[in-house]
From TrEMBL:
Membrane topology: Multi-pass membrane protein
Main location: membrane
Gene3D superfamilies reported for this sequence: Leucine-rich Repeat Variant
Domain of life: Bacteria
Source organism: Parathalassolituus penaei
Localization per record: Cell inner membrane
NCBIfam families assigned: urea_trans_UrtB
UniProt keyword list: Amino-acid transport, Cell membrane, Membrane, Transmembrane, Transmembrane helix, Transport
GO molecular function: transmembrane transporter activity
Parts of the chain that traverse the membrane: 227-255, 281-303, 315-333, 367-384, 413-433, 445-470, 482-500
Protein name per its UniProtKB record: Urea ABC transporter permease subunit UrtB
Length: 517
């Protein structure tokens, strides 16, 4: 009997709460509070629907209904009975809310999310509730903090409670102020600033000022780390773009002005693979890496066999010929693909960011590209230092006549070396397709920077290319906030020119027979 009475009381409360949604804004606010206290398993769904504008009133029955689907037909579900039926939009009236209700709904949804099984959802909920003045919410956070098992969520709850104490207590405790001084949450900083502004001469105001100074110091260091990361990210792109050129220009001595277009071919290969695998975007990027290497590598071998091999020892003609090839490749892409830029979709595992603190996040796509750059460098280094092809490449670059006398087929080595450098350029195009739009002019933006990296690092030295690329990337990002992007590039170029005047062979000059050759 008691169970039936309890169920009937709960049902009546639910009916009354839902009915209030048809009333004034004050009635709707009361309905939100009542629904929170009822504890129905669909409460969060209903409140989210109200926030999104998906709750309606059926004009005929005056029942509150939830929009279930608009296609292939307009389908709604009654909140209380759960009955689903088809309707037309003209028979329904949307339940309207104002800004105050929107704020109340967000707080209510966050409060419900505090008991979610997902720790990330709980953490997001706690952060959204920081600074909420509701005393009941403070009590709820205090009780939940004792049960919380995740350290990040528990720490966030501590900060949220400290914010409430600093904002609402007439004389907040020293511990609460110090807790906020160790936090980088924006609400914590705002609460400390308000406390300091209320009475800067008081002990609490002075302690708040000290905590604010601690926060500013942490934010400053976070800015330094972010600049370093952006610099290394840009540097990894420069290394990927230049490492293929380090082989064709550094090892073979060929000024390949079509290197940028080989990067572009790699990017378009990625675009093409995604068109062939539209349902497997994440896998398509991995498939694009060997595909881009093969496409650009074969194009490089074709260029070397058809043009470059007739121009060895004639740098001016080589420069002009490869420049002409670059224009031909651009026009071929414009004619057979499109003159417009194409967007390559980023896979899910490369989206989002790694949040180190509320003021410092590192994007996953740039983290992966930095790791990818180091992997490509390591593989190329092993290939040139630990394989027969690498030995022959170094032999031909040091003394072509002696290598041929020892039985090395220099023509074959030249073709494979140029193909290797071109293939690496194609792999760089795969990485660049995840950062920028793919277009016929993609490679032109990187050809000059690639030559700068190779010359600055030391012609023919892979370690020099790596160090130079990362160094120039960091230098650009350090200068950009004060000098601007264009002036930063100019300053870096001037520095390299002056550096080459003093050290013509770059950071890591070749020694021994390599230098003599």
């Amino acid at each position: 009997m008691l169970l039936c009475l309890s169920f009937g009381s709960r049902a009546a409360t639910l009916d009354e709460s839902v009915a209030l949604l048809n009333g004034s804004f004050n009635d709707k606010s009361t309905a939100v509070q009542n629904l929170m206290s009822v504890g129905h398993d669909q409460t969060s769904v209903w409140l989210q629907a109200l926030l999104d504008g998906n709750l309606y009133t059926d004009k005929a029955s005056n029942q509150v209904v939830l929009l279930v689907a608009e296609q292939p037909e307009f389908s709604v579900q009654e909140l209380v009975s759960g009955r689903t039926y088809s309707s037309s939009k003209s028979d329904l009236k949307r339940i309207m809310i104002n800004n105050a209700l929107r704020k109340e709904l967000r707080v209510a949804l966050s409060s419900l999310a505090l008991t979610s099984a997902d720790s990330q959802v709980r953490l997001t909920a706690v952060r959204s509730l920081m600074g909420s003045p509701d005393p009941a919410l403070t009590e709820r956070l205090t009780s939940l903090q004792l049960q919380e098992t995740n350290s990040d969520v528990r720490d966030a709850m501590t900060v949220a409670l400290a914010i409430n104490e600093v904002r609402n207590a007439s004389k907040p405790g020293r511990n609460a102020i110090e807790v906020l001084g160790d936090s980088l949450e924006p609400e914590a900083r705002n609460a400390l600033q308000q406390l300091h502004d209320r009475n800067p001469a008081a002990a609490e105001g002075k302690l708040a000022a000290k905590s604010l100074a601690n926060i500013e110091r942490k934010i400053l260091w976070s800015g330094y780390i972010e600049t370093l990361f952006f610099g290394l990210s840009l540097g990894s792109v420069l290394v990927l773009a230049a490492i293929g050129l380090a082989i064709t220009f550094g090892v073979m001595g060929i000024i390949n002005m079509a290197h940028g277009e080989l990067i572009m071919l790699g990017a378009y290969t990625t675009y093409g693979i995604q068109l062939l695998m539209p349902d497997h975007i994440g896998l398509s990027v991995l498939v694009s890496i060997p595909a881009a290497f093969v496409v650009s590598g074969l194009m490089g071998i074709l260029i070397e066999r058809s043009v470059i091999r007739f121009l060895y020892g004639r740098p001016l003609e080589t420069l002009l010929a490869t420049f002409g090839i670059s224009l031909i490749l651009q026009q071929l892409v414009r004619t057979f693909v499109s003159p417009q830029n194409r967007t390559v979709q980023t896979p899910d595992w490369m989206t989002g960011s790694l949040e180190l603190s509320p003021v410092l996040s590192l994007t996953w796509n740039r983290i992966y590209i930095l790791i990818f750059c180091l992997m490509v460098f390591a593989l190329l280094f092993v290939l040139l230092k630990r394989t027969r092809l690498g030995l022959q490449v170094r032999a031909v670059s040091q003394n072509r006549a002696m290598a041929r006398a020892m039985g090395v087929r220099s023509a074959r080595v030249d073709a494979l070396t140029f193909g290797l450098g071109s293939g690496i350029a194609g792999v760089a195009g795969v990485a660049l397709s995840q950062l920028t739009n793919v277009g016929p002019n993609l490679g032109q933006a990187y050809i000059i920077d690639s030559f700068m990296v190779v010359v600055f690092g030391g012609v023919g030295n892979l370690w020099g290319t790596l160090v130079a690329g990362l160094s120039l990337g960091v230098a650009n990002k350090v200068l950009e906030p004060t000098a601007g992007a264009v002036l930063a590039k100019i300053l870096v170029l001037v520095f390299i020119i002056l550096f080459i005047q003093k050290f013509p062979r770059g950071l890591f000059p070749q020694k021994g027979r390599s230098a003599e050759g």
